[in-house]
Amino acid sequence: MLAQVPLFADLNHRELKRVARITHQRHYAQGEKIFHMGHPGAAMFIIRTGRVNIVIPSESDGLVLATLSAGAFMGELALLDDSPRSASAIAVEDTQAIALFRSDLNKLLETEASLGSKILKSLALIIGQRLKLTNQQLAQAQMSKSA
Questions:
Q1: How far, in Å, CA of 122 to CA of 19, rounded?
Q2: CATH 3.10.180.10 matches 2-146
Q3: Residue 91, burial from CB neighbour count under 10 angstroms (0-12, 13-18, 19+)
Q4: Is the pLDDT of residue 41 over 90?
Q5: Pairing outcome for strands 33-35 and 63-69
Q6: How far apart are alpha carbons 62 and 88 in whole angstroms?
Q7: Can you give the residue ranges of the Cyclic nucleotide-binding domain (predicted)?
Q8: What is the CB neighbour count within 10 angstroms for residue 17?
Q9: Please, which pLDDT band fits residue 100 given cuts at 50, 70 and 90?
Q10: Bridge partners (DSSP) listed for residue 89
Q11: What residue segments make up the domains of the chain, in order of their start?
Q12: What are the phi and psi torsion angles at 130 (to 5°)?
């Protein structure tokens, strides 16, 4: 499963096995919050099975930003620091996920700097790609508004 996640795509078999040893299996029931907007982030999550809504909560149902399914990952900024989450993640159905905690990644960086650096480089590239996409979407929305 980890080999299909873009964050780990450049890792060899031995490195993937090493990362797998520091991950944690999690189960979330339908409707259960995986993480809460505004709370400090401690881990990223990879969806093994099920679906998850990324939501900006409100007094009504909230705004669903995305629905993620098997193979997708979320909360990756938590690997860098404990900044507040920018959205909540809620299991749409029973969901199995793999969690990678920042503390475990930091230990990996101390013991296997080369492997940790590969992961951080991939993380930086992914965050950069997502930022570019967000900028393009914002620009398109602004152009649509003014048209």
A1: 14
A2: no
A3: buried
A4: yes
A5: unpaired
A6: 10
A7: 7-109
A8: 11
A9: very high
A10: 35, 54
A11: 2-146
A12: -65, -35
